[in-house]
Design goal:
By secondary structure, the chain is mainly β. The protein is built from no helices and 10 strands. The protein is elongated and about 60 Å long.
Length: 136
């Protein structure tokens, strides 16, 4: 990728930056809309971005008739992730030229049950192939 600030081809700063755009509880599922940004390793200019939705089911047996209103969620913690697919489905090594790179995020949700005041911690992750990122 060519950086306009550095005026040369640069690599990405890893791990990618991730930020929570929106979070909610819907249908007893914690959801977060996450923006993942690939930045220049030299000057930290934003080069590419994508948005993904990360979800985690809330499994809590406090009583019957649980609804979304019975839970309160704090601002989730988010951390960028990256991985390179180096093995094929058959377990063979993929040559470096043909390996796929994935960038994503791991989100940690903290929900509190309003009925019993129990804190529930959930963790979920999602990723997107580098080819699906949009240039800025």
């Amino acid at each position: 990728m060519r950086c306009d600030q550095c005026n040369r081809f640069v690599s990405y700063d890893l791990p990618p930056q991730a930020e929570i755009l929106d979070h909610e509880i819907a249908n007893l599922t914690a959801k977060a809309q996450v923006r993942i940004v690939l930045t220049c390793a030299e000057c930290s200019t934003e080069l590419k971005e994508t948005e993904i939705e990360i979800t985690a089911a809330i499994e809590h047996a406090c009583g019957e008739g649980m609804s979304d209103d019975d839970f309160e969620m704090e601002e989730p913690d988010v951390e960028g992730t990256d991985r390179i697919e180096s093995l094929s489905k058959k377990g063979r090594a993929i040559p470096a030229r043909y390996r796929r790179t994935f960038y994503g995020a791991e989100v940690k949700f903290k929900c509190t049950c309003q009925r019993c005041e129990e804190e529930i911690e959930l963790s979920a992750s999602g990723e997107s192939p580098a080819s699906e990122f949009d240039e800025l």
